[in-house]
């Protein structure tokens, strides 16, 4: 097991990013440990304070905007493959992964979870075409460090998050990516406008009721 003095190389991660970019037609790709975290990084980078998006999505997305304090509106909007967070250039593209799918000027967030085109069990990525944003997002997902440098304690860091995928996941992604090119399919999600939100003050009551 690597110790604090061991230099870990991230070549397989960089290679996965390069191949993912080529596959989708994006100039750059930043791999993460999940799609929701990919979206979060984009929101944080762009300092998003308001957006509108479909009400038909996975629970983690409305949880994310609530946790970040982003004002938002859920829309009666049906989608296949991906949907946009309106008033931003960020997309939830969790159910898309085709050759040449990249939209210039946008940030498309992919998922490699179960049931997605590239099923790795976990993981995600951001497709984008801005070099400076690529560098910033790369550091943000890696605890604020530059993975192309040596020992992290010998270099400066920026504010970051522990959202880097494992090297084993990247290797698995490299193995399976060349065979992925299916058209997106419609997937039904519940209407998140109907969620029964519970406040922190009600948590004890919720737990007690669930145990009855």
Tell me what the structure shows.
The protein has helices at about 10-25, 35-45, 60-65, 130-140, 165-175, 205-210, and strands at about 30, 50-55, 70-75, 85, 90, 105-110, 125-130. It is an alpha/beta fold and about 210 residues long. The strands form two sheets. A five-stranded mixed β-sheet has the order 1-7-6-5-4, with helices on both faces. The protein has a two-stranded parallel ribbon with strand order 2-3. Helix 1 packs parallel to helix 5 (about 165-175).
Using only C-alpha atoms, the radius of gyration works out to 18 Å
Shape type? globular
Going by CATH, the homologous superfamily would be Type I PLP-dependent aspartate aminotransferase-like (Major domain)
Strand order of the largest sheet: 1-7-6-5-4
Strand content range: 5-15%
Helix content: 25-40%
Biggest sheet descriptor: 5 strands, mixed
Task: Note the run of SSEs as H and E.
Answer: HEHEHEEEEEHHH
Strands, count: 7
The chain-level mean pLDDT equals 91
